[in-house]
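User: Structure with magnesium ion, tokens only please.
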Amino acid sequence: MVAPRPADLLVAEVRLTPVLIADPPLLNTQGVHQPYTPRLIIEVVTEGGATGLGETYGDTEYLALARPLANALVGRSVTDLNGLATLAERTGADSLVAAGAHGGNGGAQGVDAAGLRGVRTAGKLRRSVRSGFEVALLDAWGHAAGLPVHALLGGAVRDRVPYSAYLFYRWQRHPEGPGETDDWGAALDPAGIVAQARRFADRHGFTSFKLKGGVFAPEEETAAIRALAEEFPGRPLRLDPNGAWTVPTALQVADALADVLEYLEDPVSGTGAMAEVAARTPIPLATNMCVTTFEEIPEAVARDAVRIVLSDHHYWGGLHATRELAALCRTFGLGLAMHSNTHLGISLAAMTHVAATVPNLDHACDTHYPWQTEDVLAERPVFRDGHLDVGDAPGLGVTLDRDRLAALHQRWLADDGTHRDRDDAAAMRRAHPDWTAPAVPRW
Ligand code: GKR
Ligand code: MG
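Assistant:
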């Protein structure tokens, strides 16, 4: 292998391709997934001809920030990840104001668009965009150097990464029309959830299971977890109602499921309420809602509100930021796992590379990927025994399929705007015209 010259590592071109990908009718406390969800695919090409891929949220406000950042990266080195962070802080202030996401890094400006990922700040938006570029730069650097991304992050400490089956209550089809279909069928009661889990286990070998809750009354969701515990005795089980419960409800559920839950995820909204629950139950609490930025860590630690932080390289700011979060979790004795949102194989590869390098990844990672029937990759990653292998191919070890990318971009171009910004409540209104995303706590 010939080592790249510094000039070979300079960014010659950055291509941004928004896509709409098929998404099944998965239910959550805000509503239901739309038939299509937006993602942004980022391609970096160096002067030496190395290419890199990244992926992040594709909603309008992310695209508005990504465009100026893409232009600003041309001529910089793919190794300059700290420079990328500085650039991302400076770029796109106008578009943030236009999108209404005011505020600096720290200030909470309400919750994210779908209400499921915690605070919404300008800093978090910037970090979510930056992360897609960081992954693309690392992939290009890896290709230029002939090294896997995990090597550029300090080296893998495991050769496979565990993932968990992400179970959802769901409808058989979307109310808004035929769209894409799948053969999963509906899952609206304990038997349906157990059947779904069985299929995940048989097909992908998953041995831990997370149920997205906050959809039905807590007693029904408790019954579903009980049914899972009977079907899969001793397996790690998690329940996540996205903050939909009151403190007393959360404590009742915790009590009812104390013998079977690995952890309870965001049973209530906000650090204060999480701390109240945490003080009165032995079940560990996990979060991807009350700790989603570095600024939120001190209060959560001081109040002992959570035992496990679910990292997400998208909104924490990238793969290096994920490792910084992991170091803080080690420092404060917190566990670490990984949150997921609808995503494609590029993000799955990025999650796998960074997870491979984190010594204190204590729990299997979430992923929506098995629900996605479409991808922009030439080959889909394959779960074996609920794990993904950590490869040694250069970069992320994935290859773009240009035809697929073009087809999914064409769908984005043809869209009348209905699906360009994720809106689970709007999708729910197709079936229930009076629906508004419920205020929390709901139960
Ligand atoms: O995909 O409906 C969903 C989830 O509810 C997602 O949006 C959440 O952010 O999976 C996430 C979670 O763990 O809260
Ligand atoms: Mg969650």
